[in-house]
């Protein structure tokens, strides 16, 4: 298999040993999260892939499905300094980014001092992000893309690593503001959180309603996470995988798609950031599974969480009951 995008790929023995050590730490982190979060293995894996790829995730699920608990647990397990912001309609951008205040020193000199907001952390939980106004939602745009914020004409760098895990309730839409397409595109994945199966729910009842409840424990450090993120970018990607990614993403664009149903159903499709997200995510998923290179199966497994928030259905498709999941399934059929 020829390798693409891998000028510094994992090659020598020391590299392989580093990979194996980091993969062991990643597996420990996955197991530690599983000790607290029950029945959400696929969700945990997708969020871990997001962190390993250096991205942000949007978690969508009904109340009571441990979305908040998952973010808090990940912060502890990976050793990240985390903060939570409860988004409400009266939340202002300064409540997230921070603001400058006028102060007077002992000598009587006045000057402005910057008071950093909760965004200055390593893992920010934006709880119910769609309840804030578009003005406040957009305060995160620069932070998510550039890892810095601009306040009163001055740039302030955010800590590294920096990740946003946002949550959204799919059923309560009164008093909410849909996220703009530009902000949705900043999320590497949209992770849909469903109900646990019966066996997992039974284990959860036994573990969480007794005297001693399971608690998260630190397994990794931020430095190890950053090392794993750097390693992800060195994982070689075969030409066949790159071809599958390009075929999948480009077929989702109605202007150039070879699929007639996409041209009829899709109003706008995924941009180049979707291709970048898939290329990073398949590398991260391979490492999470203990493999040294991704496969087309990784592309198929990640197609839904990476594409479904980067596409929109046409009016006719919505009227006919077509779903984005059905569209992505047709795109997957093209490369499977």
UniProtKB/TrEMBL annotation:
Keywords: ATP-binding, Nucleotide-binding. The keyword 4Fe-4S does not apply. The keyword GTP-binding does not apply. Residues 266-328 form the ChlI/MoxR AAA lid domain. It comes from the Bacteria. CDD domains: AAA. Residues 56-189 form the ATPase AAA-3 domain. It holds the Pfam family AAA_lid_2. One of its GO terms (molecular function) is ATP hydrolysis activity. Belongs to the MoxR family. This is ATPase associated with various cellular activities, AAA_3. It comes from Rhodospirillum rubrum (strain ATCC 11170 / ATH 1.1.1 / DSM 467 / LMG 4362 / NCIMB 8255 / S1). The lineage of its organism: Bacteria, Pseudomonadati, Pseudomonadota, Alphaproteobacteria, Rhodospirillales.
């Amino acid at each position: 298999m020829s390798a693409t995008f891998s000028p510094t790929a994992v090659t020598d023995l020391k590299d392989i040993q580093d990979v194996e050590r980091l993969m062991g730490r990643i597996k420990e982190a996955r197991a530690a999260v599983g000790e607290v979060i029950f029945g959400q293995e696929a969700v945990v894996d997708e969020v871990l892939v997001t962190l390993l790829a250096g991205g942000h995730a949007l978690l969508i699920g009904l109340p009571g499905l441990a979305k908040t608990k998952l973010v808090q647990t990940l912060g502890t397990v990976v050793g990240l300094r985390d903060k939570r912001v409860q988004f409400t309609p009266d939340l202002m951008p300064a409540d997230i980014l921070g603001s400058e205040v006028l102060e007077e020193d002992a000598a009587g000199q006045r000057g402005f001092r910057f008071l950093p907001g909760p965004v200055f952390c390593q893992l920010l939980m934006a709880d119910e992000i769609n309840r804030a106004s578009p003005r406040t939602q957009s305060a995160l745009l620069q932070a998510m893309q550039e890892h810095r914020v601009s306040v009163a004409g001055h740039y302030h760098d955010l800590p590294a690593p920096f990740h946003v895990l946002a949550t959204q309730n799919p059923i309560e839409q009164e008093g909410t503001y849909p996220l703009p397409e530009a902000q949705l595109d900043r999320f590497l994945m949209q992770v849909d959180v469903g109900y646990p199966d019966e066996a997992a729910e039974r284990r959860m009842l036994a573990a969480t309603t007794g005297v001693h409840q399971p608690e998260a424990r630190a397994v990794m450090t931020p430095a190890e996470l950053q090392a794993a993120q750097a390693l992800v970018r060195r994982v070689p990607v075969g030409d066949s995988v790159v071809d599958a990614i390009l075929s999948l993403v480009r077929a989702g664009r109605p202007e150039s798609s070879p699929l007639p149903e996409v041209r009829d159903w899709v109003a706008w499709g995924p941009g180049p950031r979707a291709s970048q997200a898939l290329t990073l995510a398949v590398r991260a998923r391979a490492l999470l599974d203990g493999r040294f290179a991704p496969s087309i199966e990784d592309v198929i497994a990640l197609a839904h969480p990476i594409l479904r928030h980067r596409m929109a259905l046409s009016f006719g498709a919505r009227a006919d009951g077509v779903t984005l999941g059905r569209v992505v399934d047709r795109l997957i059929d093209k490369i499977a």
